[in-house]
Amino acid sequence: MMSALYGLILCGGRSLRMQQDKSQLNYHGLPQWQYLAQLLAPLTEQVFLSCREDQQLNTELTVITDSVGDAGPATGILSAYKAFPERAWLVLACDLPLVSAQSLSLLIASRDVSKEATAFISSFRQSPEPLMTIWETKGLKRLDEERGCPRKTLLKADIALIENPFAIEQFNANTPSEREEALKTIMDAQLPR
Ligand SMILES: Nc1nc2c(ncn2[C@@H]2O[C@H](COP(=O)(O)OP(=O)(O)OP(=O)(O)O)[C@@H](O)[C@H]2O)c(=O)[nH]1
């Protein structure tokens, strides 16, 4: 039987390139962690925020504080695995401002098709976004055993690359100019703001 799917929003980065906390940035009329939580809420059993120990977010969501590793996204993912080892996780980086419910639903639907896969990664023309991924418990076990880098673990055979129809969904806003670019895309496409 498939494990219940939980949502995890990675918020614990240092945002050194952006120079302000990326999880708090506003692209759609509310902080990005909240926007992503709204997308994930109807699609998952429960949504959690993944934060550094010294990070204060004003939220009613349950926070999973980093408890393992030396920082980086894997720390957040493995801390969630340690806290709830029987679950599958839809993991999203907070710096994906153009992600939509449609593409997340596609990712989730693929779980019914490929029962063997240990992870389902959003991919545009073969280019994967490891921080827009469903991790099955088996995949997380492997990431844990390898003390892992998500990208390296995900290069292993039993993963499924799920083609995302829209390149912009994987757009990563790491710098102030990438933030401007994302805001312009939202304006031009009249995406919800
Ligand atoms: N929980 C947790 N999340 C992290 C950690 N490091 C990065 N992330 C998250 O992983 C995603 C990708 O982060 P990066 O862009 O690689 O790094 P960053 O620290 O956010 O940004 P830079 O300082 O500019 O490199 C973002 O959603 C971050 O919030 C960490 O140590 N703990």
UniProtKB/TrEMBL annotation:
InterPro entries: MobA-like_NTP_Trfase (IPR025877), Molybde_CF_guanTrfase (IPR013482), Nucleotide-diphossugar_trans (IPR029044). SUPFAM superfamilies: Nucleotide-diphospho-sugar transferases. GO terms for molecular function: GTP binding; metal ion binding; nucleotidyltransferase activity. The keyword Cell cycle does not apply. Pfam families: NTP_transf_3. Residues 7-145 form the MobA-like NTP transferase domain. Keywords: Cytoplasm, GTP-binding, Magnesium, Metal-binding, Molybdenum cofactor biosynthesis, Nucleotide-binding, Nucleotidyltransferase, Transferase. It comes from the Bacteria. PANTHER family: MOLYBDENUM COFACTOR GUANYLYLTRANSFERASE. This is Molybdenum cofactor guanylyltransferase. The lineage of its organism: Bacteria, Pseudomonadati, Bacteroidota, Chitinophagia, Chitinophagales.
